[in-house]
Design goal:
271 residues; alpha/beta; 2 domains
Length: 271
């Protein structure tokens, strides 16, 4: 049996940055068995020393720590214990420093602060949760973007994910044989951008079948029928074309990738 490599992540804050980076890289090595362990809030020499003493079988340590005293401990231990140590932020911080010679503050968790941006993020989360499928004129005019699509194109989770990034995303469903409320066109006329979401008929059919089973309503067969879904998507495309909406196919996209594509469209629209 091949070896399982032990990878330790250390952070002086929540660990979100180093975890995301490690997982992104690990996904490129699917044939390499790894076990990743993350330790957040490593902010004291005592805690760092305590953790390092248990690193005998560790192969790789990746860290996002700004304290030079702690990073020196990690680097020294890598030499004595034989594991590889990588500073994730080190090269980037050095590049920033070289721009103007200004030294970093050395204060951990500086990216997490209760300021105007943070409060706007909380407001966007409230907006997404409290107004899912809300179609009032006031609600839609408050949006940074309106996501439009047939059922099960991940509108709601995408709205919530965008909210965590401070984007107020509204959700307008396209329902067969029902007109979209005039409040939507009013919002478009007011300058609120909208983006259409689609997915392949097969993907939608599978997701909808699972949804019907979860709801205990297998009798709603048309909802998951391929032919009916194809008709829905054809009507949706005509709707998007009529209103000049950009389209994102979410068939093979994660929520994160869809959100990134939406932010890209919004950025291009501003330029």
């Amino acid at each position: 049996m091949s070896k399982t490599y032990q990878i330790v992540l250390l952070s002086d804050a929540t660990g979100e940055t180093v975890t995301a980076a490690a997982n992104a890289v690990a996904s490129q090595f699917v044939k390499m068995p790894v076990e990743i362990t993350m330790y957040p809030f490593v902010r004291s020499n005592e805690r760092a020393k305590s953790l390092i003493e248990g690193f005998g079988s560790v192969d790789l340590v990746i860290y996002t720590i700004v304290s030079t005293e702690i990073t020196d401990q990690i680097e020294a231990a890598s030499q004595s214990l034989g594991f590889k140590a990588v500073s994730l932020l080190g090269p980037v911080m050095k590049a920033f420093e070289n721009l103007d010679g200004i030294l970093p503050s050395g204060q951990p968790g500086k990216q997490y602060k209760v300021d105007k941006d943070y409060l706007e993020q909380v407001s966007a989360i409230d907006y997404a949760i409290l107004h899912d499928d809300g179609l009032s004129a006031e609600y839609l005019r408050q949006a940074d973007v309106i996501l439009v699509g047939v059922s099960r194109t991940s509108k709601t989770p995408t709205c919530i994910y965008l909210a965590y990034q401070g984007v107020r995303a509204a959700n307008v469903p396209l329902v067969p044989d029902q007109d979209v409320p005039t409040t939507f066109t009013e919002a478009l006329a007011a300058g609120v951008p909208a983006i259409g979401l689609i997915a392949s008929p097969m993907r939608l059919s599978q997701v909808r079948q699972n949804r019907l089973k979860a709801l205990g309503k297998p009798e709603l067969i048309a909802y998951a029928e391929i032919k009916d879904i194809q008709n829905e998507l054809a009507s949706a495309r005509l709707f998007f074309e009529k209103h000049g909406l950009p389209i994102i196919d979410v068939t093979r996209r994660s929520i994160e990738e869809t959100a990134a594509a939406i932010r890209g469209i919004l950025t291009e629209r501003k330029t």
